[in-house]
Write a structure and sequence with these properties.
The complex is a heterodimer of chains A (236) and B (77). Chain A has 236 residues and is mainly α. Helices cover 79% and strands 0% of the residues of chain A. Chain A has a domain at 55-182 and 194-226. In chain A, α2 (8-40) packs antiparallel against α8 (196-235), α3 (54-81) crosses α6 (149-164) and α3 packs parallel to α8 (196-235). The longest helix of chain A has 40 residues, at 196-235. With 77 residues, chain B is mainly α. The longest helix of chain B is centred in the middle third of the chain and has 38 residues, at 12-49. Chain B is rod-shaped. Classes of the chains: A mainly alpha (236), B mainly alpha (77). At the A-B interface, α2, α3, α4 and α8 of A face α2, α3 and α4 of B.
């Protein structure tokens, strides 16, 4: 049953359908999200309009962290069970994670200038995000340049497991150390201190960037499946 | 109204730069990924067209991906 579930044919057809769905809803959601983020949401009582950077900075950081956590879990499973599909998934999600880590750092730096009076500070949150970016670079490098496949797989798994230590450091850095970065306003458990008029556009922008990530992932995934199938055609 | 939207009480440059960088970076990754996918699909079809009739038949029965790629390229062998 598991073999049937992970069949390349089924996954390819599923990804085709999902891609079509995302392509149809994405433009509408994008216009809606940008209207809320740039026009309809209120300015912050303290920071003013510069708070709008939050609508791209926070979802980017969440996706960057979420992607790395996924990558670590899949790497461990793949290292133990050697499932080909997971190897392909990891290959496709790492560049997405790197993109959003870089975007979180850049937009954070732009936000820091008017609020902290500096573009950059070697603060715990910012430094741990830079460390995350290096872990992504190392993973992508080992996926692309280390041969043979078994060795590359082992390196990727080791890097992602070591890198996973950085995830709680990023999350709790604002609580463990004195940092310029503000503590989390949105909590899964506990009270969220952000007003609904800002929370709604934030969640909408998160959805848009998640759909974008899914779009890139599926296109990359299809490319990798075609690569596998091409080697099959050559064997005919 | 439009001027206010662009200036954002003096923070316009920061806000628009942030959204602009995110938009452009995402667009570049999208275009690169899309072009790579299309290139591989095209090469895949080219390789299939070079196969003989029997080999094509074998491929058609074995793989639904083959038919899907053909559909996306709007070509009929």
């Amino acid at each position: 049953m598991m073999r049937n579930l992970f069949s390349l044919n089924k996954i390819y057809i599923f990804s085709e359908k999902t891609l079509t769905f995302i392509k149809s809803v994405f433009p509408v959601l994008l216009i809606l999200g940008l209207t809320f983020a740039l026009v309809l949401s209120p300015p912050d009582y303290l920071q003013g309009d510069v708070v709008r950077i939050m609508y791209v900075h926070v979802p980017s950081a969440w996706i960057a962290l979420g992607t790395f956590s996924t990558l670590t879990v899949l790497s461990i499973i793949n290292f133990i069970f050697k499932i080909k599909i997971l190897e392909i998934v990891n290959l496709c999600i790492a560049p997405i994670g790197l993109l959003f880590t870089c975007l979180a750092i850049i937009t954070g730096s732009i936000w820091a200038e008017p609020t902290w009076g500096t573009w950059w500070a070697w603060d715990a949150r910012l430094t741990s995000m830079i460390v995350l970016m290096f872990f992504y670079v190392m993973i992508i490098y080992s996926q692309k340049h280390i041969k043979p496949k078994n060795r590359s797989l082992m390196f990727t798994s080791i890097i992602s497991i070591i890198g996973a230590i950085n995830i709680p450091i990023i999350k709790y850095s604002v609580e463990w150390w004195n940092t310029l970065h503000q503590p989390a306003s949105i909590k899964i458990t506990g009270e969220t201190s952000i007003h609904s008029s800002m929370l709604m556009p934030l969640m909408l922008m998160l959805l848009i960037l998640l759909l974008y990530s899914a779009l890139i992932f599926l296109m990359k995934y299809k490319t990798e499946i075609i690569k596998v199938k091409r080697s099959g055609v050559k064997r005919l | 109204m439009i001027e206010k939207l662009f200036l954002m009480n003096g923070y316009g440059a920061y806000v628009w730069a942030s959204f602009g960088i995110v938009f452009i970076s995402c667009l570049i990754l999208f275009i690169r990924t899309y072009n790579k996918l299309k290139k591989y699909e095209k090469n895949f079809i080219k390789e299939i067209q070079e196969l003989n009739k029997e080999e094509k038949k074998v491929l058609q029965t074995r793989s639904k991906i083959f038919t899907q790629v053909l559909k996306s390229q709007k070509k009929i062998i």
